[in-house]
Amino acid sequence: MPTQLRQDFPENQAFAVLILAHGAGAPMDSPFMNAMVQRLVSRGVGVVRFEFPYMAARRQDGVRRPPNQQARLLDCWREVFCCIRQSYSGPLAIGGKSMGGRMASMLADELGAVGLVCLGYPFYAPGKSDKPRVAHLADVRTPTLIVQGERDPMGNRQTVEAFSLSAAVRLHWLATADHDLKPLLRSGFSHDQHLESAAEAVAEFLRKVAAEKPLPA
């Protein structure tokens, strides 16, 4: 196992488990990740977090590093999924914040996850909407939920709605929200309200996909 796992489960049996990866610049216990995990666990979702090798190394020595090469990130995902699959036989979904969700999206069909959850998907690099990262999302078969801010600089609503995405992909838009799902003050929504909305959408989505593979008796 390349990295330490952090597992958060509800007091009662979880109806599904979500393996949740961090984004490019923040660790698995960032304020955003902690806030989302707390809300998901309160709704009956078990959450497992891990860190990619570059972030695990930063935790050890404090030195900031760029993300590992894509192949290494994907291998890390495979290793973590295999580890959790060996110990949990119920509905297992994958996903993550930004880059973590993007890496998960490339493996969802391969791994056989019951669902894919992306929180702030990086559809393109900032300022480069002419170079979208969506080719695989046109063919993904795994039920997918993307929670996206309408003004996300890596995928705003106007631009994303012009992309051709698979019928398996559903977008949950948050009014005037940015990449961290934080809205403008004039929207009338608070960041906390948007995080609650995101968690509720994710939990509802996971209940639906988990129903197709109930926990063993």
In short:
The chain is of the alpha/beta class and 217 residues long. The chain contains seven helices and seven strands, in the order E-E-H-E-H-H-E-H-H-E-E-H-E-H.
| CATH level 4 superfamily | Alpha/Beta hydrolase fold, catalytic domain
CATH topology, which one? Answer: Rossmann fold
Low-confidence stretches: none
Mean pLDDT, as a whole number? Answer: 95
DSSP helix fraction: 25-40%
How many E-type strands?
A: 7
Largest sheet: 7 strands, mixed
Instruction: Assign the CATH class.
Output: Alpha Beta
Which structural class is indicated by helix and strand composition? alpha/beta
List the helices and strands and how they pair.
Blueprint: E1 6-8, E2 16-21, H1 31-42, E3 45-50, H2 53-61, H3 70-87, E4 92-97, H4 99-105, H5 108-111, E5 116-119, E6 144-149, H6 157-160, E7 169-174, H7 191-210
Parallel strand pairs: 2-3, 2-4, 4-5, 5-6, 6-7
Antiparallel strand pairs: 1-3
Helix pairs in contact: 1-7
Features:
217 residues, alpha/beta, Rossmann fold, 7-stranded mixed beta sheet, 7 helices, 34% helix, 17% strand
Task: Characterize the structure shown.
The protein has a single domain, classed as Rossmann fold (3-Layer(aba) Sandwich), CATH 3.40.50.1820. About 35% of the residues lie in helices and about 15% in strands. The protein contains seven helices and seven strands. It has helices at about 30-40, 55-60, 70-85, 100-105, 110, 155-160, 190-210, and strands spanning about 5-10, 15-20, 45-50, 90-95, 115-120, 145-150, 170-175. A seven-stranded mixed beta sheet has the order 1-3-2-4-5-6-7, with helices on both faces. About 40% of the residues are buried. The mean pLDDT is about 95.
